[in-house]
Fold this protein.
Amino acid sequence: MIEYYNPNTVSIIFCLFLFIISITSYTQIRKKERDRTDELFNDLDNLVKNLTTIQNTLGNENSITEYESIKKNITKLTKDNSLSELLSAKNQIKSFEKKLIKIKKKEEKEKNSKRIQQASDRYIQIDHTLQIIICEEIHRMKNRLRLMQTKENCDEHGIKVLSKRIESIEQELNSKGYEITDDTGKEYNDGMRSKIFVVPDENIPDGKEIISRVIKPGIKYNGRFIKHSEIQVNKGTKI
C-alpha cells in the first residue's frame, strides 16, 4: 500500500530544515566574529602597551598629544563595535607605532651624536703640552744614541743603560695612550699632514718622494694625532 505525504507537511519539514541550517550557520559566523573580536582586542591591548613603553622613553612632546588621543579612543572601544572599527583602530595604532619608532631612532641618533661631540670636546680640552715635550725629547735622545753608537770607543754599557731608561719612559707614555710616530724611510704622500722640507735627490727616481729625516715626530693620543710631524722629504730627480 502506497502512502502519500501531505504537501503541507513536506513544506513544514523543509522549512524547519532550512531554519536549522540557518541557525547553525549564524551561530558559527557569530562565534567566528566573537573569536576575531577577542583576538583584535588582545592585539589592541598589546599594541597600546608597546606604545606606552616606547612613548615613555621619548622626550618628544609633539607625540604625547597624539598618543593620549589614540589611547583615549581605544578605551572607548567595546566588543560591541564592528570588526571594521576594531581593524581601523588597530591600523591606526600600528601606523602611530611606526611613527614613534622613527622618532625614537632619531632621538637616539641625536643622543649618540651629542655624546660623541661631548667626548670630542673633552678630548680637545686635555692639555697635552708636557707629554708632547717629553715625546719630542725621547725622539731626539734616540737619534743621539744612534749617532753615539757609530763612533769609535763609545760607551756601549752607558748607551745600553740609557736606551733602557728611554724605552721605559716611552712605554709609560704608551700606557697612557700616547704614541710617537717615526716615518723615516717611508714614501711621502699628499695625505700626510706633516710640515715638510723638500730636498732634491739625484739618487731617487724622478717623481718619487722619500722621508729621509724626521725633525719632529708625529704624536698620537688614543689613536688620533695631537701633533703632526716635521719631516725632510727627498724628492727624486733621477731620470
Notes: The two ends are 131 Å apart (CA to CA).
